[in-house]
Specification:
BirA Bifunctional Protein, domain 2, 9-stranded mixed beta sheet
Length: 372
């Protein structure tokens, strides 16, 4: 049972760890700091390039870890034959989105590293869906595929030197600037329009997959289209499939990511609360032969959220000095067995919010007020 007094970020830690345990992912623990060089070489992979550094006693420059994925990749076995399935519940040290100052932030996520196949991709994205649902009732997971998008960009004839600028326009869904930029580069109108149409698509599997099959066959790699279609159909046909949206403007740095990328949004939070994807390019950059896919849930997004429950406690039980301890114990056990919380007090505390007020009236516990 999770206490109704926990803040959402605290409650989520328990929910997510329980979820990943059920799917056979192993808990991964790591040090608080790494050599700064690890982050300096992969700054674009980080959410923020602001890193807290200090000099160790041996003269090495160390950093309080701003990211978990890089540490996991560095410290796990490089095997392309099986899949290492890991999850973490770690504190990272980065500039908080809420306060814009350095903060110790709890981050929960998972990584699958090794021989990444279609099922592994489905499983990880499916767990991202389940994780997102844990954050609130109204949520959306937006999914893209950088392989398919890159093929369209290459078909349009965008020079590699201009890719980062194009991806910025795509991430902003700035179609006007994208088309203007293509025109300035001398890109054929038909090809520029196809790229713009690809970036504009947004919707469910039933709405978008036929368009991709019709418009991008022969342009995007057929294997990428097939895998994307298979995984999206499996996700959309499963539990919580209604929160899946295809959105090719959901992008990340192509120097590190490839294939599936996704971002999760929860009602009431202005930025993404979950992000992830395949990062084989990062693995190659770190001299690894394995593939990888993973995601993280950013718990600092919920730091200003309200309590999970409108009540501090489900049942407030008022007893007296002469109350029968056996009766009180039996009553408490019965309440907890129902999955509820109970607070025992001699008097009603100031300011407490409770669903039910119970009192021991000389050997019998009765409900004297119900606010539910």
């Amino acid at each position: 049972m999770k206490s109704s007094q926990l803040l959402p970020s605290e409650n989520l830690v328990f929910l997510l760890r329980e979820l990943y345990d059920k799917y056979g992912y192993s808990r991964y623990k790591m040090n608080k700091f790494e050599e700064y060089d690890l982050y300096a070489k992969n700054k674009d992979f980080l959410i923020s390039d602001s890193v807290i550094t200090f000099t160790d006693t041996n003269g090495k420059l160390l950093a309080l870890k701003p990211d978990v994925t890089l540490s996991i990749v560095k410290n796990t076995k490089d095997s392309g034959e099986t899949v290492q399935k890991l999850y973490y519940n770690e504190n990272v040290y980065r500039v908080s989105k809420g306060t814009h100052s350095f903060k110790e932030i709890t981050q929960v996520g998972l990584e699958a590293i090794g021989d990444i196949d279609s099922y592994t991709i489905f499983e990880v994205v499916s767990l991202a869906v389940k994780s997102l649902v844990c954050t609130g009732e109204n949520c959306i997971l937006e999914i893209s595929h950088l392989g398919i998008l890159s093929d369209v960009i290459n078909y349009a004839g965008i020079p590699k030197a201009e890719m980062r600028k194009v991806f910025r326009f795509i991430g902003e869904k700035n179609i006007h600037e994208l088309l203007s930029f293509c025109n300035a580069l001398g890109i054929e109108k038909e090809k520029a329009d196809l790229l713009a149409d690809t970036v504009k698509i947004y919707g469910t599997a039933d709405e978008i997959l036929p368009w991709i099959r019709e418009k991008l066959t022969g342009i995007a790699d057929e294997n990428n289209i097939n895998i994307f279609e298979t995984v999206i159909k499996a996700l959309s046909g499963g539990e919580n499939g209604d929160i899946i949206r295809i959105d090719f403007s959901a992008v990340d740095d192509i120097r590190y990511y490839n294939g599936f990328v996704f971002k999760g949004f929860s009602e009431g939070v202005p930025q993404s609360v979950l992000s992830g994807g395949q990062y084989d390019a990062l693995m190659k950059n770190m001299k690894r032969k394995s593939g990888a896919i993973g995601f993280a849930v950013y718990l600092d997004c919920f730091e200003n959220a309200t309590k999970v429950s409108d009540y501090d406690v489900d049942a407030l039980l008022i007893y007296s000095e002469n109350s029968d301890i056996s009766l009180l114990k039996r009553t408490v056990d019965e309440i907890i067995a129902k999955g509820e919380s109970v607070l025992m007090q001699r008097e009603i505390p100031d300011g407490i919010k409770y669903k039910r007020l119970l009192k021991d009236l000389g050997g019998e516990v009765i409900c004297v007020a119900n606010n539910a």
